[in-house]
Amino acid sequence: MEKRYSDYNAYLRKRFGCRVQKITLDAGLGCPNRDGRVGTGGCIYCNARGSGTGAAARGQSIRRQLEIGMERMRRRYKAEKFIAYFQSFSNTDAPIDVLERLYGEALSMPDVVGLSIGTRPDCVGPGVLELLARFASRCMLWMEYGLQSCHDSTLAAINRGHDRACFEKAVVDTRALGIPVCAHIILGLPGETLEMMLETARFLADLHIDGIKIHLLYVVRGTPMERLLRSGAYRCLEREAYVDTVCNILALLPPSTVIHRLTGDPHPDELVAPLWALEKRKNLQAIDHRLEEMNIVQGMHFRKDTVAA
To answer: How far apart, in whole angstroms, are the C-alpha atoms of residue 179 and residue 209?
Structure first.
């Protein structure tokens, strides 16, 4: 069945003519919101692994991580090409020569056709962007910036360490070099209403954002969010509310925005709540069903009079 939104896998197949899979990489880099340069402790939902695999701490090189991941994806999905996804922590938070070596090592692997660089919008100075522009001339490259919310009050409450204006500047500077941007947002952040979440979608729509990842705020062990949950100060979104919000967001986004993700993948051994977050297939099916049921297609409520950044 054809998707009612601009699906990332379909985008990759159209561009490369075959099945393309992302390989998640851990480069062992840090985060300025943990080491004191911006803040300490990180965002209130982030644990010590920073969404990483721990592969760098186990001594696995980028090459080895790719070899393992590519073998698995070939076997599971019959994938033919691969995207090297630098995911854990802030993957532009290192000296230029270190970044050049890491990205180059990934791109030197056979059948790696692109790079996705996950980072913070306050970690991309001119030197970093110039380096990325050189790599973008050699392969498909996406920058993935964590926004989470367009509301500065929420960003302060979650100890994000940057504001909306910082994200907007990073997007403008990156796209000025011809590099597409994928924004990450989180639904269900403390204190956010449905209207606030939809306003984040409208903000990104006004930027004509190239891509988006939509995440559920799930609670993992050892985080300030776990303490909020156990104290009764926070309540997780129910599945139905999440599904409805995702569908409403898709309706607001430009039809051209590539939907990289509609929900996250919590580590089962770390997840505290909600347990339904582990049911990825069921959640995606629920989104598809609701889109069909409500006759929603991506972009149907997009404000077409907005001007791209």
So the answer is: 11
pTM of the model: 0.95
Sign of CA dihedral 268, 286, 75, 136: negative
Beta bridge partners of 259: 7, 212
Supply the pLDDT for residue 179. 98
Cα 136 off chain centre by: 19
| Residue at token pair 């099916």 | 285
Higher-confidence residue of 266 and 39: namely: 266
Q: State how far Cα 20 lies from the chain centre.
A: 18
